[in-house]
Fold these 2 entries.
Entry 1:
Amino acid sequence: MSNTNPLLDVSGLTKHFPIKGGFPIRRTVGAVQAVDGLDFQVAEGESLGLVGESGCGKSTTGRLITRLLEPTGGKITYRGQDITHADRKGLAPIRSEIQMIFQDPYASLNPRQTVGKIISGPMEINGINPEGGREKRVRELLEIVGLNPEHYNRFPHEFSGGQRQRIGVARALALEPKLIVADEPVSALDVSIQAQVVNLLQKVQRELGIAFVFIAHDLAVVRHFSQRVAVMYLGKIVEIADRDDLYDNPRHPYTRALLSAVPEATVDAEPRERIRLVGDVPSPINPPSGCRFRTRCWKATEKCATEAPPLVQAEGNKPGHLTACHYPETADTVPAPRLSKDPEAAA
Amino acid sequence: SSGGGGGNGTPSAGATSYTGAKVTIGTKADSTGPAPEIPGAKKGGTIYGLAPDDFSHLDPQRIYYAYNSTIALLLHRCLTGYKIDSSGHQKLVGDLATDTGTASKDNKTWTFTLKEGLKWEDGSELTVEDVRHGIERLWAPFVTESATYAQLALTGKGAKWRDAYEGPYKGKHLDAIVTDKAKRTITFHLAEPKPDFNFTLAMHSYAATPVKLDTKEKYDKAPVSAGPYKIKAHSIDKSMVLTRNKNWDPATDSIRNAYPDGFEFLFGVETLDSTDRLIADQGNDQYAVSIYKGVPAERIQKVLTDPQLKKRTFNGLLTGTYFYWINTKRVTDLKVRQALIHAWPLQQIRQIYGGPSAGDLASSILSPDIIGYEKSDVYGKLTKPAGDPEKAKALLKEAGKEGVKVVYAFPQDPTYLKTKVVIENALKAAGFTPVMKPVDSTSYYDQIQQINNSYDVMWGGWSPDWPTAYTMIEPLFDGAAIGNGQNNVSQTDISWINDAIKKTAVIADQTEAGKAWAALDKKIMTEVAPIIPETFTRRFYVYGSKVGGAQFDPNFSATLLYKTFVKA
Amino acid sequence: MSTPFLSLRDLKVHFSTEDGIVKAVDGLSFDLEKGKTLGIVGESGSGKSVTNMAILGLHDPRNTTMDGEILLEGKELISASESELEKLRGNKMSMIFQDALASLSPYHTIGAQIAETYRKHTGASKKEARARAIEMLRRVGIPQPDVRVDDYPHQFSGGMRQRAMIAMALVCDPELLIADEPTTALDVTVQAQIMDLLKDLQQEFGTAIIFITHDLGVIADIADDVLVMYGGRCVERGTKKQVLSAPEHPYTLGLLNSMPSLDGPVDVPLSPIPGSPPSLLNPPSGCRFHPRCAFAEKVTDGRCSSERPKLEVAEGRGSACHLTVEQKRELFSDYAATRHN
Amino acid sequence: MTPATPSSAAPLEVTKEDSATSAKPGNPKGTESRSPGRLAWTRFKRDRTGVISAITVILFFVVGIAAPLIAKVYGKDPYTTYGMNIPGLFNEFNYPLKPNGGISSDFWFGIEPQLGRDVFTFLLYGIRNSLLIATAAALMTTLLGVVIGITAGYLGGKTDYFVGRVIDILLAFPQTLFFIAFWPVVMAIFVKPTDGTPVWLTVTSLILVMTAFGWASIARLLRGEVLALREREFVEAAKVTGASPARIIFKELLPNLWTPILIQATLLLPTYVTAEAGLAFLGVGLTDPTPDWGVMIQNGAKVYQDDITFMLFPGVAMVIFVVAFNLLGDSVRDALDPKTKR
Amino acid sequence: MLRFLIRRTLGAAVILLIISALVFVLFYAAPRDPARLACGKVCTPETLALVKKNLGIDHSLPVQYWDWLKGLFVGRDYASFGHCDAPCLGYSFQNREPVLGTIEDRFPTTISLALGSALVFLVFGVGTGMLAAVKQGKALDKIASSASLIASSMQIYVIGVLATYLLVDQWHLMDRANYTPFTDDPGKWFTGLLVPWLVLSLIFTANYTRMTRSQMVESLSEDYVRTARAKGLSRRKVFFRFAWRGAMGPIITIFGLDLGTLLGGAIITESTFSLQGIGKLSVKAVNTNDLPMLLGVILVAAAAIVVFNIIVDAVYALIDPRVRLA
Ligand SMILES: Nc1ncnc2c1ncn2[C@@H]1O[C@H](COP(=O)(O)OP(=O)(O)OP(=O)(O)O)[C@@H](O)[C@H]1O
Ligand SMILES: Nc1ncnc2c1ncn2[C@@H]1O[C@H](COP(=O)(O)OP(=O)(O)OP(=O)(O)O)[C@@H](O)[C@H]1O
Ligand SMILES: [Mg+2]
Ligand SMILES: [Mg+2]
């Protein structure tokens, strides 16, 4: 574990989006608790995967780290420097070091700019003048991400989704960052293309030593890409561990349920135990008290409703494997019951 | 009445034999009712009147504009009035009074006797007190729009006439008016001689108002009628319905016929629109007349070239003169003023107004319907109506003012924006440097009536309030009439003119006086040249095919409503 | 063999656009029996949705030309009149669309939209239809259906919307259900719920299901038979087991290889299919997959780029590839080895 | 040296005809680059209605711009009162003597009743002036609306709130009424009472007043567009790389707003042409001696009973122009935004 | 809903307040004196002062505005008109009638004109628009679109006079434009307004045709319309129940705004047809420097726009369940 001197240190990170309302004068009447007290670190060159259901706050976390959003609370430290509330000027020196790759290959490229402009833009903004000129560098980058350097003058709409995502990667690489936040970079791509991009990112991470916060909802992809994985549920991290630990020995019921729900394209392998969660993620405006997962958890007790479980190294966990559960699963737990589909019970 | 507010002077016309009305003073017999029958006329029916605007005032004391007088003729009665014959000649006769009044030798005391059988619309008697009350009301603070001739004459205090009397509502009467209820006489003691005071009293500002039925400010909306009709309904700015006043006795009225059972006026109909309606002649429009507005230039050709249509028209010259004031305080050189007159393109201007049928070219101050009018053409404008640039140039050269800048002000109105074009061309041709200055037409007169304005030549016009020259020459050229909001816009303050006005104004015999005025007119034009006379404007009116007796009111330049009737 | 329940014969669906003719589906055939689930997989744009919309006759006739045969219980649908189709749609055959939010009318309550279909096809009264709607909602697992029946779609969560869509599609007990990527936008946990639901319903009513997806994992979960589409054509078909464990087409193999799994090795790179999907305006000649195919040069005479490979189907199994069976056995096993260590 | 990249204003090319030669050099090795603007242009060229309308509209503009030249060749001017000066053209009522409004080899479109000016040159100059005013007003309105709208949309917060309220108030104004009521005020601010109102001033104030009232709706629209665009990931991408707000507005947002801007501008122009005519009818704006299309039609409407020709030429010209421009607008919209078919 | 209405009404009141203050300031920025016009032909400074007092404009601008505002709520006393009950918009300088009364008197004309023509252009515009959407790309579509376009590019004052000349004077097909209160004679009310309705709706119809067509085309391509078809619903039902429902929102929005503007007076139309509505009244107020009347009509017009804005938003929320009123 490289916790000693992490590249990125996030503690107690919180983001509440205010809800306006009231009468007759508008004011803040509530908040979407999108992210609520996250603690994690990312070491240099390491890839941290962030998984969870839709709306659990993955993107918000990513946007907080890149400071596209102003945190409501907590602290973000990058290489020892507190950037929690740094403004544009304060961020300028580290702007080039933290970059982002976006989910939507269509929306993330300005349709009115050529590829060359899109990639050289960040260099221009940060006053980077590589040897041999920016155009040369852009062509290099295009090559690195597996695109034809001659496509320099083309427009995004002339590329396929996978190619566009490569352009996005090239743009992020243009500033030679130390940390890239990739927000579901492959979710919008076809399976056949998805693999291309995952490979590219992996290559980039390994060869250039760039650390990643890799956001995804596809557990298989995350497993493939990230050395460490954090599972989020409703604005909180419920479990964080090294890859193998997490996939082989999930301690949190939610992690387990999540893993069991992934369909696998194999017919001969014996069917995995199946846990079927009922209902949807509750609203982050009024999250359940105590453990936020308790409304969908088959193990929930009184305690879960009153006491929020801390994210700790549960008994039997390897070091660095933290779980936020009062009743963590054990390896030999009997397979969870296939939950009744009685909807009333879940409501 | 005067040159109308703003830019509504668009005239139009066509060559006819009509050359202005003759005005005479009638006898007691002329003053005795009823009015002579009109051949073919029958009682009954309704005449419809179309107009762009509602009457702005109905309270007689607040009536001065000619347009308001067109209805005042049906409702209000003054001591005197004009009896108009079918050819348009007018006679001053007694209306409420038995005759045109008796003046003292010095013309400072005027006495009138009321006819018998005069009644208000509610049947109460119309007395000399009511006549006096009408005049005393002029001092009421809410009456601000009236003519001021009588007030001036009665108090002799000039512009401060209001200070002389506090108005009738505080219980006091004006000392200068003496009434005798028993004898039905009313006597005016004037501060200065006024030989034409009986003309003055024909103005509707001096009509009688019932003491008992006076509602002060509210009277303006609901006046009490002494005339042949009374107001039945009035929807302001939209319509007005008049019905017969049963208490009006034709025997007391030598002026008014009253054939229709009622009138219905429709307001808000723009002139072009109303003309088209009258031309189309459908439905009730067959019984309709245009109250005040003549056929606009755009329809003159249509109206005059269609023989069927032309049969349904009458026309007349407006009472006043259109001219251009020359600011003598700015254009101080007589030669330059004369050059301006020579240069002015009268013919082209009239072309824009609609050609010869739009009116006659003017060459003098006085208009043809003024008593004593004599044609004079000092600058040969009638022979060279298109302008004489050579002569103008020569005069300018003489004066050493070649290329002098001339600021010409005119109301911003489609017609004058057009005449501006030809005027500018003519001035350039004559060697002036013209500056053309359109002025917002709603405040046009306000602006040019500022004595320190910066205009050299200004479009304008003036109509006399009664057909004697005094009401033209005095307001326009008397030095006393210089001031903000006053009409001596040329700012002529020349002692011989002032003296001549004073002298001529007291000549008792109006024919004599007329001659003197005409001579003064010519002299002013020759020696001072303070205005450029332009046209005596002619107006054409179309009326519905079922309307009879439609004729021009030479006094108020409108349709003479009380002579109309519904054809069988 | 009697006539199959649904049978497509050489279906062609071409769109005329201002850029030219888009051959979205170009000669597709398959059969489907009652009570069976056919999974259709393929990349985005491979013509999956177009095929199924063609079955329901939902294409705009103004810019679409359809060719071939669609036989439902022997009845030809391409030439059927609009009113005949109206009677079938929502009744005998119905469809679940991918984007439930966009596919449900935002202006009508969920209940009304379900009831409407029922009334149209059964002539039931308003009250009956409403009761039916509530029952359907209950059946698809909507909590408090008698209350939620009056909600609008935007008041539902993503999973609930998709369930409402399903309820609507099933309200008249259709014999054919087409599910067009019903779970793609959903979380895995919700996806699992929906698929369980579909399976249960099929068991209950013996519905024939066409399940469209581009996720082979989902196919493995739900389908009996699989049809792999590429560039508007079928490249391979067979039972789920056949296709997933012994693919016969390089594209299918590529798809399988490019998928990361929950238990495979993690330190080796994935094996993607190079290149990008074909343009349907100017599709590659011959085999449409050949520009991306790793084995194209193994076939002599450049046949891959010149000759369209035939889809030889025997007992529901077949693929469209010029490689010989031997070549496949040899070449594919290498690849399979890299996959499962 | 940075290579020649298509400017961010590229989409504007669709309205210009001479852009066909651009973008060829600097394109390495036949990888032909098709910018969104170029694509739109290609689509536009295929649209027959659009092309015909464009030609018609351009023709009007050419005629307007070249009016003095044409008048010179033709040998007449719009100010001389030929009808009055030359005997034999007018009857006594100042209507043309010859039939059809006095059309002759000398006066191609006849002469104007009353003043007797040459209709052909008057119409040319009228088109010139009206188009000048409408174009300038449309441009200024768009400019102002775009700047305010984008700024408010991007900055959000208090700025947005304030701008939003100003827009609310402006849109609640009964505009025509305001025009006629306060036109004199505007003129009074600029003109000394001793001076004539120069035509340029009338024109300028007209443009200014039209702009002052017109920008609000465009600003509102663009604000909305920006709010939507602001959430797009490429804007975030720019932010992540440290781009300044100015850069984001001008380099990232603006190029993407050309489509709505262009559409608004094309909607605005014919509206302004007719609005200018309508205002002239109410006595606001250019007045008679200055040739104006609207004033001409309005005068024509007065004399149509006796001389329909005089109304026909300007009227038909106006209908053709407005229709052509609207059709052009539709085509431009279709070309720029092919998904939303009219 | 109630909260929404209250909040928006408050906002509207503020807007109207600002507008009225602006009108006041702007009015006096012009070089014109309303007293001078009311003063008559012989206007000495003494008389002028008297007139100013009578009209209630003998104070400084802020005091005048305050007086006017106060009049709105508590009524006002005039030197020459007497008392004016709240809400008092003052007395017209021009005809010395209460402004409110005059506006009340003119409003039915404007309402009739607006509603009638709105009905005509809605029916024709939306009708042809729908037809065009159904027959997309066919001849009928093109004819409908271009005909409406040509119609809309005509000027009212031209079409108005032409229509009157031909339809009324020459062919005697219709009655001359004229307002008779509906309560007096519905028949006359109808025939008298027919020509203005038709002419006024001309310029709007095209807009609605085009808008309806594009909205329908757009909403016909919505996914939920496809779903409706997939359910087996008939074309007619799909068209009206689903597609039209989706297209309605923007149309109603624009319609509300248009109606609001129209209720403030169709100035050119009313002038062309000599109809005594708010529009004509406002032109007259301008021409006669009649400040109280001008204020009155501008407020009415602005209020109409603002109120319809609120109505549009409320209606939108009714049509589209996704919209929440705040
Ligand atoms: N700008 C915002 N204002 C208000 N709420 C927001 C905002 N952005 C996100 N949220 C809310 O915060 C919560 C977390 O959103 P976030 O986008 O981080 O989820 P996510 O995990 O990325 O989901 P997905 O997988 O769908 O992308 C959601 O409930 C979302 O509605
Ligand atoms: N109406 C249409 N007009 C023109 N082209 C169309 C039309 N509908 C579909 N297409 C084209 O047909 C091709 C196949 O589309 P289809 O929707 O069937 O793909 P798909 O396999 O369902 O993809 P996805 O997984 O993205 O849903 C695509 O290239 C699409 O662009
Ligand atoms: Mg996200
Ligand atoms: Mg699809």
Note: Chain A touches chain D through 44 residues (CB under 8 Å).
Entry 2:
Amino acid sequence: MGDSLSISIPSKPEYVSVVRLTTSAIASRMGFNVEEIEDIKVAVAEACTNAIIHSNCKQDDNFNIHFGMDEKKIVIQVQDQGNGFYCEAVEEPDLTSPKEGGLGIFIIKSLMDEVVLESDIGKGTTIKMTKYLGDDI
Amino acid sequence: MGDSLSISIPSKPEYVSVVRLTTSAIASRMGFNVEEIEDIKVAVAEACTNAIIHSNCKQDDNFNIHFGMDEKKIVIQVQDQGNGFYCEAVEEPDLTSPKEGGLGIFIIKSLMDEVVLESDIGKGTTIKMTKYLGDDI
Amino acid sequence: MSLKMNTQYLAEKNMWYVEVVGEIDIYTANRLKETLINLLNEQNTDIRINCEELDYIDSTGLGVLIGALKRLKQDNKNIIIANPKPNISKLLNITGLNKIFIIEG
Amino acid sequence: MSLKMNTQYLAEKNMWYVEVVGEIDIYTANRLKETLINLLNEQNTDIRINCEELDYIDSTGLGVLIGALKRLKQDNKNIIIANPKPNISKLLNITGLNKIFIIEG
Ligand SMILES: Nc1ncnc2c1ncn2[C@@H]1O[C@H](COP(=O)(O)OP(=O)(O)O)[C@@H](O)[C@H]1O
Ligand SMILES: Nc1ncnc2c1ncn2[C@@H]1O[C@H](COP(=O)(O)OP(=O)(O)O)[C@@H](O)[C@H]1O
């Protein structure tokens, strides 16, 4: 059984940098290398950014980031109690004709080893992402 | 009404540095100056260290750090569900004949503007500390 | 942790020089957007963004750059991303934006 | 974020030189304690701790230093804290430990 750590933050842009620093500190403590720490940090920040922009929570509603850690991996869940959305409908971005939006989830999937999106309309969204320590799987 | 942010961490020494970084990030975002950020960081870390050493919680019991922020101040509560203790019995350290222990609470009181200790035997301890932005009060 | 920007117009090259220092994310991307819009309103021409001291950019920031690029492309102008750090290069490669912007250094 | 230590015995001065780099807290203080105990078991003499690159010390770390000092005082020896950063000086002043240890620089 591993350790768990969680943070609850306001749905406001200015707190994403706090989460980035916390995430880096956790990943670095676990022994991830510099590039992996950066990957995890970016992925978590993108998920928080989505919770803030898209969940439609009130700014003083907090949302949660949960970190589960063991010797092999970190599992992070970013969870909001907002609108939710049809995640099956999310399309991969067309890299040959970029748009202003639609990159966040794609970046998360590129940087993490496993990503699971769960969203219930009216209830909220959880994105769960895993990164393994050591050799890439 | 201000923002609130909270963290729940395992009762383990290796997580105090994560809390230090998170605390610094929050205090710096609020506009505290470098010395104040350091004061807040040290005070929170001392409170966490006490929760880990003295509360007698199991290592996989988490404890909480709650940050309340508004334009004027930060109020931080470090809360464990451990043994508790008789806080009236805590003596100021005798600075002329230093001992290995007994500095933590004294340091917290020196660095923060307001400190309130509440402890219930068998239920746990909460230390609440406030630091004001701007001129010292 | 914040974003600082310096902007300068080089007449002989007909080019905007923009230096970005710090972090471009959901909190700061709007300021970048406003800055770029102001520049392009003044002169719709190539922008060279010096990223030597840019520590971080997220999808919000990339979206701002893509928006500016779209506007420039209409006049056959471009955005040059100069000296990105490895973490930022990685993001540009993953998203294919390295093929859309001109990357230097 | 961790603690690195280098130790060296200077025979001509009959003094231990200890360099501490990083952070001394509840997580790392035990390693400092063990290191100091080993030194004093070998030679119970003055210790000069170079703190130039020490970023942080907490009450646990100060406790370790006080413990070592008590042992040294029995032989009329001392601990010299050299070049502490401002945040660490502040802590030494608040706790009155600046009057117990010898502070240099
Ligand atoms: N937490 C969330 N709550 C509601 N909708 C979301 C959430 N996260 C993502 N979405 C939806 O998924 C879409 C794609 O997200 P993303 O790939 O991050 O790109 P972008 O944020 O730029 O639109 C968003 O436009 C939004 O409709
Ligand atoms: N969270 C806590 N739970 C139980 N007891 C505590 C807690 N915090 C402090 N104490 C008690 O108060 C005493 C003084 O604490 P402190 O001033 O930090 O010094 P030290 O930790 O070095 O003993 C401790 O020895 C302990 O008995």
Note: The CA atoms of residues 66 and 102 of chain A lie 24 Å apart.
